[in-house]
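Table 4 source record.
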Amino acid sequence: MGTIFERPQINFQTRNGSEGNHQFHFTLLFLLILRQALERVGRKAHLFIHNFSGNHVAFASPEALMDWRLTVEENLRVYAALYGASRGALPRAMDALELRAEARTPYGHLSLGQQTRAGLARALLSDPELLILDEPTASLDPDIADKTRRFLLDVRRERGLSILYTSHNMAEIEEVCDRVLFLHRGRIVADGTPLEVSRRVLGSESLDSAAMEEVFLKISRGGLA
């Protein structure tokens, strides 16, 4: 794989923008990073593209819905068959996201938080090398959100998984990010570890802990040149 998604590093990404445009911003950010990666691999780009085909990449978002009429288990069985997932992938995903109790519930009857968990389970069925997540904990209660973050970090560590992650939750970013990018008005304005970005954007090298909330506010309010 290309160096931009070198494992075991997590590439968690944040972006600033209106809710109405967040899918556009997310897509643009990914394309910018992908273009940088292709420039780095140069003549070996065809190998890079090959590694991102098939089941190597998975995506989960609260807006990426499933069939409302099928149960959670039926939906996941359909996707497991499409992905060619291993026999144990489905029960592992359901157990990991605590979906056993909802297995026979129609997807359309789930709460937003339960739908989010089902989407994460679907994304992990194919055992991807790159997992793209859009606001994965936005609809979850604090307990399930915490378990989801811990689960994602465990999966990353165990599988050597790379994760591209968008979120407006700055406390979450500080907790789980190795690297952070801020996208503002169509361009990347900050890039580095949470602490590096905090020091650079806030202009204080004496900071000893990340301050993503303050960084977000400064960028969103036009505090960067």
